[in-house]
Amino acid sequence: MIDSKFQTSPPRSPTSSTSSFRAGSPLPTPAVYRQDCMSAAAKRYKYLRRLIKFQQMDFEFAFWQMWYLFMAPQKVYRNFHYRKETKSQFARDDPAFLVLLSVWLCVSSIWFAFVLDLSFGHFIKFLFYVIFVDCIGVGLVIATFFWFVTNRYLRRDSCQDQDVEWGYAFDVHLNAFFPLFVILHGVQLLIWNIFPALISHPMFISTFFSNTLWAVALWYYVYITFLGYSCLPILQNTHVLLYPMTAMFVVYVVSITIGWNMCINMMDFYRNRL
Questions:
Q1: Residue 197: domain span
Q2: Which of 107, 189, 199, 258 has its CA 20 to 30 A from that of 45?
Q3: Per residue in 6-56, pLDDT tens?
Q4: In a domain, 9, yes or no
């Protein structure tokens, strides 16, 4: 259904391909530059096929991306522009980032199993939920939503022959999900183990600290999502993607006021779901 509505990165004529991507660049055209664009189905097939070829994945570069998603996320999206110039697509063609993220999810799930005192069967179920529901399942929904909204409402009138790739929308979700994951499944769980009184007790300071961690994580997600779409030259008015921050701030203030500790609720949610 996705492929039939919008053609992902439509083929370009040989006369305009280089000039459209490398206008104003003093550098020669890269040797790996593609003048033609694969269809969305072909890109998807190529991506999935590489999931089992670990020797072809660049894990060192995936580590670099994860580091800079915290330190300077703009640098990560500059690399997406370089991929567009060389391979005629913004979306990743290397699944190393997704594989590495799945490994970190496995590690954090083991830690959660220890904290929640889960049996092996419950651990497997928890791992399944975290990877295939919380990360990938929710990501498919969010990526499809932003893919539709950006193509339908935010494309420039002069760029109607181009579109936001669905694969790129999913990459933006993965980029935004990683800092959120580290804060909520890493920092928060570490504090839960070492300083439980600071985060897991029904006191004001615990609620304030816990909900502040959640606010930072969710604001990170929104901001990196905004960066992902604002760097696309075919889109306009991408600042509207920052509007959810206002609603999130209101929820943050209200939650602290009524004493709703998000960390405790997350732990209770995981226990009840299992």
A1: 43-273
A2: 107
A3: 444 444 444 344 344 444 444 444 444 444 455 556 665 565 566 666 777
A4: no
How large is the angle between the packed helices 166-182 and 59-71, nearest 10 degrees? 70
228 Cβ contact list (under 8 Å, min separation 6): 77, 168, 171, 172, 175, 176
Gyration radius of the chain over CA positions: 21
C-alpha 97/C-alpha 270 separation (Å) is: 26
37 vs 98: which has the higher pLDDT: 98
Residue 189, in any domain of the structure: yes
CA distance 102 to 87: 26
Question: Which amino acid would we find at residue 111?
Answer: W
> For residues 166 and 143, is the Cβ–Cβ distance under 8 A?
yes
Report the number of distinct structural domains present in the chain. Answer: 1
Q: What's the CA gap between 111 and 188, in Å, rounded?
A: 12
pLDDT digits (tens, 9 = 90+) for 26-40: 444 444 444 445 555
End-to-end CA, the chain: 34
User: What is the 3-class SS of 168-211, one letter each residue?
Assistant: HHHHHHHHHHHHHHHHHHHHHHHHHHHCHHHCCCCCHHHHHHHH
Give the span between the Cα atoms of 173 and 195, in whole angstroms: 31
- Beta strands (DSSP E) in 224-269 are none
Do the beta carbons of residue 130 and residue 109 sit within 8 Å? yes
Cα–Cα distances in Å, from 137 out to 54, 59, 178, 203, 219? 23, 23, 15, 34, 21
Dihedral angle at the C-alpha atoms of 221, 224, 225, 226, nearest 10 degrees?
120
| CA–CA distances in Å: residue 164 to residues 3, 9, 106, 228 | 12, 8, 31, 11
28 within a domain of the structure (yes/no): no
